[in-house]
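We close this part of the discussion by returning to an individual protein. The encoding preserves chain order, so positions in sequence and tokens coincide. The sequence in question and its structure tokens are set out directly beneath this paragraph:

===
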Amino acid sequence: MNTAETNFFLIEGYLKLLSTLDLDTRLELISKLTQTVKNDLGDRKNNFFRSFGAWQSDETADEIIKDLRTSRSVSRQLESFE
């Protein structure tokens, strides 16, 4: 059974289960489901745009480069194979 078939059976099962609820409860459920979908879409959009942030600093690019280069340290120790 593929994913599409599984989703179809899940949806049909939920629909049968929820059809036993009264009208007001089903409308409230629709409202809440709609809100969760809107929230998910908004979160995805925000996450996408947050991934394009710029580095925020009062230092110039040259100062940042200088700091990075001076903070480098090499602790490589050569071992002899005697």
Summary: The chain has three helices and no strands. The two ends are 62 Å apart (CA to CA).
